Amino acid sequence: MTSSISQEKPDRVDVDTEQVQEIYNNYGVSLPDLEQALVECLQERGWEQYEDTEKFRDELQRAFEDAYLQETGKIVIPEALDIAAKDATHWIKNRRCSTNGSSSDQLAPTFTALVGAVLPEYSRRGLDPHGSVQFLHSNDGTQPSPN
Questions:
Q1: CB–CB of 146/119 below 8 Å?
Q2: pLDDT averaged over consecutive 10-residue blocks of the chain (147 residues)?
Q3: Distance between the two ends of the chain, CA-based, in angstroms?
Q4: pTM of the shown model
């Protein structure tokens, strides 16, 4: 890993489970524990499965942040994590989450993986002022945008 930051936006790649766990380890949280805490936070809010609504996406972000705080014992959400969680709420609908799957089956692992996949880039190169999806196509969040 190099310490110099290029002016050109690097391509984003999907990360594997071990990489995602390592990323969360750097934030002081176990991925399986975070996923379970996310499921519990969603269930406490009355959500059992993914719904393609703005209300659900807002609750998903809040539940994730609550789960993160609960698992780390911290009182502040890092900015990169906050924006990654917000953006991931929009990408999740294009992933393998269906309305017939429970939050523990698909939603929690998929969402935490999406957040983990973008955290290093958001931390390294900064965020757009509105936290928008500036580096990715709007289709599924896996390809860099052609700016």
A1: no
A2: 41 62 88 94 90 92 96 89 89 64 71 88 61 44 43
A3: 25
A4: 0.71
Contact yes or no for 92/60 (Cβ under 8 A)? yes
Give the pLDDT confidence score for residue 141 in this predicted structure. Answer: 46
For the stretch 72-80, contacts whose Cβ atoms lie closer than 8 Å and that sit 24 or more positions apart, written own/partner, are: 72/27, 72/28, 72/29, 74/28, 78/27, 78/123, 79/127, 80/119, 80/122, 80/123, 80/127
| Residue 67 near residue 34 (C-beta atoms within 8 A) | yes
Beta bridge partner(s), residue 49: 102
Specify the number of domains making up the chain: 1
In a domain, 39, yes or no: yes
Does residue 12 lie within any of the structural domains? no
pLDDT, position 105: 65
SS3 state of residue 116 = helix
